Amino acid sequence: MLTVRPIGYVKSPYKRREESPPQGRFSGKLSEIEIFREYEEGLKDIDLFSHLIVLYWAHESSELKLQVLTPHDKASHGVFATRSPSRPNPICLCVVELVERRGCTLLVRGLDAVDGSPVIDIKPYIPVFDCFPEASMGWLRSLKTRR
């Protein structure tokens, strides 16, 4: 059996899913990630990184759809070829800027999560490991990137 336990919750300016941006990177808004006290020791040295990878549960995600429309074009795509939260397990990933750590609170910029979203994990963003400039953009390649 698979059990996923949150390590904390998001305090976000986005109160409903419709308010959040399609990609957090395009938003300069600040959010807080409140980590449970029992995991505070795991935050040691996190403030040495400028960016973090945040995995969270899209708890307000709409029903599962295997074909979805995106804000990028009018064609439908398989959910696994998109970043839509309407998936079998609505786990979302967002790379954020770490602005400040205050005890168990992380102040971040660019998180697209809705207020109250359970945080599943946090990892440091490490460009030499996480950036692949040669990666294909799939169906997005033929579109103009929106900013």
In short:
The chain is 3% helix and 32% strand.
List its salient traits:
globular, 1 helix
Structural write-up:
The protein is mostly beta strands. The protein has a single domain (8-127), classed as YaeB-like (Elongation Factor Tu (Ef-tu), domain 3), CATH 2.40.30.70. The protein is 3% helix and 32% strand. The strands form two sheets. The protein has a six-stranded antiparallel barrel. It has a two-stranded antiparallel ribbon with strand order 4-5. Strand 6 (91-102) and strand 7 form a beta hairpin. The longest helix is centred in the last third of the chain and has 4 residues, at 127-130. The radius of gyration is 16 Å and the shape is globular. The termini are far apart. The mean pLDDT is 89.
CATH C-level class: Mainly Beta
Strand order of the largest sheet: 1-2-7-6-3-8
Mean pLDDT, as a whole number? 89
**Count of helical stretches:** 1
Quaternary structure state of the chains depicted = single chain
CATH architecture: Beta Barrel
| Low-pLDDT residue spans | none
Rg: 16 Å
Number of domains: 1
The CATH homologous superfamily name equals: YaeB-like
